[in-house]
Write a structure and sequence with these properties.
By secondary structure, this protein is an alpha/beta fold. Helices cover 31% and strands 17% of the residues. The radius of gyration is 19 Å and the shape is globular. It starts with a helix and ends with a helix. The protein binds threonylcarbamoyladenylate (TXA) and magnesium ion (MG).
Length: 312
């Protein structure tokens, strides 16, 4: 048996026993448990210190699994065909007779679902008799983890098992689209909205900043590196670090870059790990140069804005 096979077996055993473990996805690491068990889902909220009224995303292997729990519509099928498995989360209506834990959905009639792409997680999901409820595997309001070691930093011994799937390819959370009524984007993320628009061939409103409590990523504290973050900066602050989009010629130890050549997808992939690294090295603040606001730059700026609001 390869180590991946034995780790999948181990993961299944924990999950079948209603334990909560960390799993890799293509976006960020998740804190996963049996979505059909109140007992299991409760453990996620406790470990993550997450408010009970903030619902979780349910992760499925395939369409046939999801059909029993949710009401699927035309727009869903169009997007599913094009982008799944992948970094897109759908908000849909629950079926009356669904099996999902009411604790995971905060007793609402709508549910967030997605089909993650990471091959190791897909192998695991295929073996399970239930989908996985999984928020990002960080303590509430902190940075999402993109490596097994980040999850360990967040939870230490409190986490029973981490299925190590290497570094996350996308590095930023999934895009969330509400498909009940007119399509609305609730969170910018790993799938560019322009690509979604092309498939649906209709305008899609961005609803990412409503003043409603518990909207995706809207908690006052969110994506926080734990030190002040300053956007659109020209240089670092005293005892602080500076981040550029492209690798620069300046060779200073407090200078970091998000991508070698300025590619915004690479930058998104490296964002959280760079913020984490800077905090770990003991710098007192993070200044970051202006990042172009298109393509994946939109999601990067969204996360930076939320982090900036928190720590200044
Ligand atoms: O990439 C991702 O989506 C990662 C990986 C692990 O899959 N997961 C993730 O989960 O980012 P989480 O819990 O950190 O963020 C999910 C967001 C939350 O802000 C939550 O409020 C929102 O989705 N959400 C969940 N159910 C919802 C619903 N029915 N309506 C509106 N928003 C919902
Ligand atoms: Mg999160």
């Amino acid at each position: 048996m390869t180590s991946n096979q034995s780790n999948i077996k181990k993961s299944k055993k924990y999950l079948d026993n209603n334990k909560c473990i960390s799993v890799p996805t293509e976006t960020v690491y998740g804190l996963a448990a049996n979505a059909y068990s109140n007992d299991a889902v409760r453990k996620i909220f406790v470990l993550k210190k997450r408010p009970k009224n903030n619902p979780l995303i349910i992760h499925y292997y395939s369409l046939s699994n999801v059909k029993n729990d949710c009401i699927l519509n035309k727009k869903f099928f169009l997007l599913y065909k094009k982008f799944c498995p992948g970094p897109l989360t759908f908000i849909l209506k629950l079926k009356k007779e669904n099996q999902i834990s009411k604790i995971a959905t905060n007793n609402k009639k709508l549910v967030a679902i997605r089909f993650p792409k990471h091959p190791l997680l897909r192998k695991l999901l295929k073996k399970l008799k239930y989908p996985l409820a999984a928020p990002s595997a960080n303590i509430y309001s902190k940075l999402s983890p993109v490596r097994a070691s980040d999850v360990k930093d967040e939870f230490g011994k409190k986490i029973k098992f981490i299925l190590d799937g290497g570094e996350c390819k996308i590095g930023i959370e999934s895009t969330i689209i509400n498909l009940v009524g007119k399509p609305k984007i609730l969170r910018l993320g790993g799938l560019e909205v322009g690509k979604i628009k092309k498939v649906l061939n209709m305008p899609i409103s961005l609803n990412i900043n409503p003043k409603i409590k518990n909207f995706p990523g809207q908690s006052k504290l969110h994506y926080s590196p734990g030190i002040p973050l300053i956007m659109n900066a020209k240089k670092e602050r005293r005892n602080g670090a500076f981040i550029t989009l492209k690798k620069s010629n300046i060779n200073k130890k407090n200078y970091f870059y998000l991508s070698k050549n300025g590619d915004l997808s690479h930058a998104a992939k490296n964002l959280y790990s760079t913020l984490r690294k800077i905090k770990k090295k003991g710098y007192k603040s993070i200044s970051i140069e202006k990042i172009d606001n298109y393509g994946m730059g939109l999601a990067i700026n969204d996360r930076l804005k939320r982090a900036e609001k928190n720590d200044n």
